[in-house]
Design a protein that fits this description.
This protein is of the alpha+beta class and 213 residues long. The chain has a single domain (18-206), classed as Aminopeptidase (3-Layer(aba) Sandwich), CATH 3.40.630.30. It has helices spanning 3-16, 55-61, 64-74, 133-147, 162-170, 203-206, and strands at 20-30, 44-48, 78-84, 87-95, 99-101, 107-109, 116-124, 152-158, 177-186, 189-201. The strands form 2 sheets. Strands 2-3-4-7-8-1-9-10 form an 8-stranded mixed beta sheet, sandwiched between helices. A two-stranded antiparallel sheet has the order 5-6. A hairpin with a 2-residue loop joins strand 3 and strand 4. The chain is globular. The termini are far apart. 24% of the residues are buried.
Length: 213
Amino acid sequence: MNLTNCLSKYIRFLKKASFKFDRVYFFKIDLKSFKFDLEGVDIEIIKTNTVRDLVDIILERGDSHTKRYEKWIQRNYLCYRAVFAGKVIGILWLNNTKLVEVLFGYKERIQNTNTEAWVIDGYVLEKYRRIGAYKLLWHNVLFDAKNRGIEYIYAAIQSSNESSFKVHYKLGMNNNVYKVLYYFRLFWFKIFLTRRFLRFKDIAILKPKIIFN
């Protein structure tokens, strides 16, 4: 092994051994009182069970999502795609299996898969944002979940994802934060700590530096 390859391997090794800290906010949505808005834009919401339908999403997000999506489909996660003019422009996943992968390798267990589910990994192609695609995805997925007998939907947002906070705040995820996950990585070790609130918290109070107007 030459010096360049040796140094490159050593640098990758050090990067994996770095320290990292982050937070994830958990939300709970009561579908019994949720107001659905299923109209407004010329976009169709369709379920899919093949990664072939998600090529445009993967091209923009990166090849690593191929294996992730294949794994989720094998585990019976439900994938909803937003189709505009024959093109898949967005996705959102619904999961009510017993174990949900949230972020950083942290897994959350669903207590009752008959009445509870998670929505994860929502994404809209950059070119098609601000036309109402994600709102329509969100409302249709939650509406379908309610029709399946789901009463409560859970979701999580990484602390640094300000745009996601703003979008979901407008979609009704404002005064329903029930838990925070603290994630630490020291060298190769992961540590997860959680703080559960006695009452729901407003994300605007928890994240005062974000302008939600």
